[in-house]
Design brief:
The protein is an alpha+beta fold. It folds into 3 domains: 96 residues, no CATH class; 310 residues, Rhopdopsin 7-helix transmembrane proteins (Up-down Bundle); 29 residues. It is built from 14 helices and 12 strands. The protein has a 6-stranded mixed β-sheet, with helices on one face. Helix 5 crosses helix 14, helix 6 packs antiparallel against helix 7 and helix 8 runs antiparallel to helix 9. The radius of gyration is 33 Å and the shape is elongated.
């Protein structure tokens, strides 16, 4: 970018070509002023190849420069340039004249060889003679005062998505649009998650449901939902308050940096595996029929819960050790604390493989178990109903138990956006990409929040159990309030006595 006392030019690079635009023209120079402007195609500075014939272009500079005044007089352009000069067309004594300054088209933006910018960022100084401050212009996928942070990687956290959108020392109602929308969305998810977790918990904690392993898996899933909701809420509001400078305790922020994102990731993976275990348990129940052992099923479920938790923690523990808390001082003498995750090349590959494993394997197990369940059930029905074809029975079972097939696809579709966005976009390249990554991050939080819709509402047995519990809770509430009103009425009658 080149500047004059009254004008500002912007340089764009596209397909290894440079283009210059006149962004601002001031008739009277004003220092320390904020100006919003829009650059259009008409503001582009043309090269002399577009304005002169080749005879003039290839002539000596001393001969060619004589014609520069005619360019502004015969054309309605704002600026033009050659290999040495960048010229501005402006009014002088009621006529348009060219005002040219020497411009180095091949300048290196390294702050005179003293750049502290990282990852190939360009360095700019506020003055060419006695600079007081410098600024780093980050390439794609990097951010921070020195461009030292990267948004690359399989899983982008909320810190990279929302961090720089949160304005320090500013009220929530005055924050940027993406921050306000994220607050609204997250609060809705948190409320929905707490309601869903509570309703599923009171349903699956009943003894009649926990007689088999399927009920134990679903009870663990409801507890996992509540834990996920609480951890996600903590993560979101700690980020908001920390970047707004309301929370500054480094020890607290360090602990949450190492733990919360890791726990969110583990909880989401555990939820996918628990849903797969429910489908496998149902398939085993159908296969074994009357020989199904409920006691053994309970023991196996408890053992599998331990295996799932240990496996998920063990395969994701690298994320915990790859995090660190960084103190960054901004240009406005403000300090921000960032929770940064950085993987080495081998760890990044391992991280991607583990994420794909925890993403696809539960889905495949869930889908295969459901297909086996429907196949075996149709086979048993065909043995007792010889007059009806196996195909007819199988299609009837699919229609009757379509919610079993729908569940894995709903869960995979909700988790898929984050996977696709992470692989296709690779990183957050601009502020507008934050909306896309925020969408993917938000959608991935929904599967644990819809356990009630996926498992309880479609099942007659679970729905009946929930209705019975709901009736009992309503009676207890009515009895509680009736007792309060009765005691109040007695106190009032004892206090107010006739004269």
């Amino acid at each position: 970018m080149a500047t004059t006392i009254s004008s500002c030019f912007i340089e764009f690079s596209w397909q290894q070509q440079k283009f210059y635009f006149l962004a601002l023209r001031q008739n009277h120079y004003t220092q320390s002023i904020v100006i919003n402007t829009t650059v259009s195609q008409s503001d582009r500075c043309q090269h002399i190849n577009e304005l002169f014939n080749q005879t003039i272009v290839q002539s000596h500079l001393l001969f060619r420069i004589k014609f520069y005044q005619t360019i502004c007089q015969s054309n309605k352009i704002s600026c033009f340039y050659d290999d040495i000069y960048l010229c501005l067309c402006q009014m002088h004594k009621h006529q348009r004249v060219s005002n040219c300054l020497e411009f180095n088209h091949n300048m290196t933006f390294d702050c005179l060889g003293q750049s502290v910018c990282q990852n190939g960022a360009q360095c700019f100084q506020d003055s060419g003679t006695c600079p007081q401050r410098s600024m780093c212009i980050c390439p794609s996928c990097y951010y921070g005062r020195l461009c030292q942070f990267s948004t690359s990687g399989f899983s982008v956290s909320l810190d990279a998505i929302l961090g720089y959108h949160i304005q320090p020392n500013i009220k929530l109602t005055e924050q940027t649009l993406i921050v306000q929308m994220s607050i609204l969305t997250m609060n809705m998810i948190l409320i929905g998650g707490l309601v869903n977790g509570y309703l599923t918990l009171i349903t699956f904690k009943t003894k009649v449901i926990r007689n088999v392993g399927c009920g134990i898996y679903l009870l663990a899933s409801s507890i996992n939902t509540l834990v996920t909701t609480i951890i996600v809420g903590l993560k979101f509001w700690i980020l908001i308050l920390a970047q707004s400078n309301f929370i500054t305790n480094k020890i607290f922020l360090l602990i949450q940096c190492y733990s919360i994102d890791f726990l969110v990731r583990c909880c989401l993976n555990i939820d996918q595996w628990l849903a797969a275990c429910v489908a496998i348990e149902r398939a085993m129940t159908t296969i074994k029929g009357t020989s199904f052992n409920k006691k053994k099923s309970q023991t196996t479920a408890k053992f599998m819960l331990i295996i799932i938790v240990l496996c998920v923690i063990g395969t994701n523990i690298h994320d915990c050790f790859s995090r660190r808390l960084i103190n960054e001082e901004n240009y406005e003498d403000e300090t921000r604390l960032w929770c940064i995750v950085s993987y080495s090349t081998h760890v990044r590959i391992y991280n991607s493989v583990m994420n794909i494993f925890h993403f696809l394997t539960p889905f495949i197990c869930h889908l295969l178990a459901t297909i086996i369940l429907l196949t075996k059930k149709s086979h048993f029905h065909s043995l007792t109903r010889a007059s009806i074809s196996y195909r007819t029975i199988f299609l009837r079972n699919i229609r009757e138990h379509r919610h079993l097939l729908l569940a894995p696809f709903v869960l995979i579709l909700l988790a898929l956006p984050r996977l696709i966005i992470s692989f296709l976009s690779k990183c957050i390249k601009s502020g507008s990409d934050s909306w896309l990554f925020l969408f993917g991050y938000t959608i991935s939080l929904i599967p644990p929040m819809i356990t009630f819709i996926i498992f309880i509402l479609p099942s007659k047995f679970y729905r009946r159990q929930f209705y019975m519990i709901f009736i009992r809770y309503r009676k207890n509430i009515q009895r509680y309030f009736h007792g309060i009103f009765f005691s109040l009425s007695i106190r009032i009658s004892n206090t107010v006595r006739p004269l």
